[in-house]
Amino acid sequence: MSRTAKINRKTKETDIRVSINIDGKGEYKSEIPVAFLGHMISHIAKHGCFDIAIIAKGDVEVDYHHTVEDIGIVLGDAFISALGDKVGIHRYGHALIPMDESLAEVSVDLSGRSMLIYKVPLPKNKVGDFDAELIEEFFKAFANHSKSTIHVNLRYGENAHHILEAVFKAFAKALSHAVSINPRASGEVPSTKGAL
């Protein structure tokens, strides 16, 4: 079964189009007016082996908030749509990833329940012209719309770019394992309830 999705979302503030293939090769194409976020999502694609294409327009002349949040919304919607009934998946994923002096830890549960725990203190709030606090908004939107539980913790780090890159790479690896098929449980939903 093909685990793919195409999701469009248009509001007065943004126009976002996302297509994904969960069982891809890590190919990434984007037209995003927020360069730093585009760079971070490229790590989700590459290190998660997801094929992701995003075309996004937004009111970035106001600030990046609406565009960043709405990309998280649409990407979350795309993942849950592509997963379907979640039969046979591992459901859980965890990764501890270094990026130079930084070490980030991410745990994912595709539980059907939305929750984000985000504990990533940064040495500064800007990476270039990007407000680093918006990364939490991205993950909150993704968690809410993919109906997943995500815990993001920074073990340590000094450089804000390195910290956030470690976070995204850890998220990619954790999500990749969570959506992967468990050969020992094929045909089963990974829950005692029988549904997620």
Describe this structure in words.
- The chain is α+β, with helices and mostly antiparallel strands and 196 residues long.
- It has one domain (4-185): 2-Layer Sandwich (Ribosomal Protein S5, domain 2), CATH 3.30.230.40.
- Helices cover 34% and strands 31% of the residues.
- It is built from four helices and ten strands, in the order E-E-E-H-E-H-E-E-E-E-E-H-E-H.
- The strands form three sheets. Strands 1-2-4-3 form a four-stranded mixed beta sheet, covered by helices on one side.
- Strand 1 (4-10) and strand 2 form a beta hairpin.
- Helix 1 packs parallel to helix 4 (160-179) and helix 2 (65-83) runs parallel beside helix 3.
- The longest helix has 20 residues, at 160-179.
- The chain is globular, with a radius of gyration of 16 Å.
- The protein starts with a strand and ends in a 17-residue tail after the last helix.
Brief descriptors of the model:
196 residues, alpha+beta, Ribosomal Protein S5, domain 2, 4-stranded mixed sheet, 4 helices, globular
